[in-house]
């Protein structure tokens, strides 16, 4: 059984998710991967409500990889909800986006993103970015540990 905290990947594109999943595997990431395809599903999962409500709460993710351009509630709105929720506020959220628009970058940092990574279009650079993410975020950074509360949320 894997005792490592899961990585929550918020990505609506099947192709982008598969590419990231394969790159994480190739980099030797052994953390379980959880995928949410939209903003509403992400907040339900993090809060253990709606479709994600279970008798036994899922482990809190150690880190969230968040795409900005999601249908419905976009990544900025998801980030805003996470940072406004005291039970989720400390959760590291890393934006992984193709947008290099300075307004997007600035808005995310103003909302409290932990890091903003630009998705390289070149496969070799993408794989390097994933390896560096693994080395820094999963090997050196001490991630917060969540303790489930009685209603299935974390503190």
Structure characterization notes:
There is one protein chain. With 155 residues, the protein is α/β, with parallel strands linked by helices. It has one domain: Rossmann fold (3-Layer(aba) Sandwich), CATH 3.40.50.2300. A five-stranded parallel β-sheet has the order 2-1-3-4-5. Helix 1 packs across helix 5 and helix 2 packs parallel to helix 3. The longest helix has 18 residues. The two termini are 24 Å apart.
Distinctive features:
155 residues; 14% strand; alpha/beta; globular
- Strand numbers in spatial order across the main sheet: 2-1-3-4-5
Distance, first to last CA: 24 Å
Q: Give the ordered list of helices and strands.
A: EHEHEHEHEH
Based on Cα principal axes, name the global outline: globular
**Do you know the CATH topology?**
Rossmann fold
Specify Rg, calculated over alpha carbons.
15 Å
Q: Which structural class do the helices and strands define? A: alpha/beta
Largest sheet: 5 strands, parallel
How many domains comprise the coordinates? 1
Q: Tell me the helix content.
A: 25-40%
- The CATH C-level name is Alpha Beta
CATH superfamily: Response regulator
β-strand number: 5
Note poorly predicted spans.
147-155
């Amino acid at each position: 059984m894997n005792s490592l905290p899961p990585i929550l990947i918020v990505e609506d594109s099947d192709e982008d998710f598969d590419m990231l999943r394969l790159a994480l595997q190739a980099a030797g990431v052994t953390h379980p991967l959880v995928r949410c395809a939209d903003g509403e599903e992400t907040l339900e999962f993090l809060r253990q409500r709606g479709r994600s409500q279970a008798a036994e709460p899922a482990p809190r993710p150690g880190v969230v990889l968040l795409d900005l351009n999601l249908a419905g509630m976009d990544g900025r709105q998801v980030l805003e909800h996470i940072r406004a929720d005291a039970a989720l506020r400390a959760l590291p959220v890393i934006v992984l986006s193709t947008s290099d628009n300075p307004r997007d970058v600035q808005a995310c940092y103003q909302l409290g993103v932990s890091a903003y990574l630009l998705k390289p279009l070149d496969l070799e650079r993408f794989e390097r970015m994933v390896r560096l993410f693994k080395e820094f975020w999963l090997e050196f950074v001490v991630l917060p540990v969540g303790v489930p509360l009685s209603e299935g949320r974390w503190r």
